[in-house]
């Protein structure tokens, strides 16, 4: 425990007094202080000027990060017949229909992304109270309700990230690993910020993007200079 406290104190000292950094400087700071024994995820959090309780202020979307996430994504697909075979061939980890529904209802959720063909949605709809709160419910707006199962599975496996504003108007996601190169992380960060920027809802009033911060799994956060974060638009 003492070792953990020492590492935390060292990181806090390194971050002290630093804010509104360029993407490159922030990435360097986070990478230099990601000292856990595992490959920490680099996480981004955006504080938006929206109230997601209002439908016209909900922010959600999907972005394919140019350098992937570094994470192995487990994909479940609701499909039958030829589409089920297509999902399996594309690399889906779990494929099924009623059997998959029953597995989920029993509390066994061993996947990170859920995809469904449109004809399966009446079945999947019964799982709304289970999948919805976990942000796993298939949705045509983010390409997870589709007949092109192959493309959806490959996108999920290849670095596609879904995002959705939480109650306080915060959007967060993993944008890579601490082991990534600095330029790879910078590209991913700018791609994610750009996607959230383009997802600005019609009901948003005032300042839309208030604050953007990055951190590693075990490290402190540092805020980014907004002009640097959106410079790649």
From TrEMBL:
UniProt KW keywords: Repressor, Ribonucleoprotein, Ribosomal protein, RNA-binding, rRNA-binding, Translation regulation, tRNA-binding
InterPro entries linked to this entry: Ribosom_uL1_bac-type, Ribosomal_uL1, Ribosomal_uL1-like, Ribosomal_uL1/biogenesis, Ribosomal_uL1_3-a/b-sand, Ribosomal_uL1_CS
GO cellular component: ribosome
Subunit comment: Part of the 50S ribosomal subunit.
HAMAP family the record matches: Ribosomal_uL1_B
Main function: Binds directly to 23S rRNA. The L1 stalk is quite mobile in the ribosome, and is involved in E site tRNA release.
Annotated family: Belongs to the universal ribosomal protein uL1 family.
Protein name: Large ribosomal subunit protein uL1
Species of the source: Paracoccus pacificus
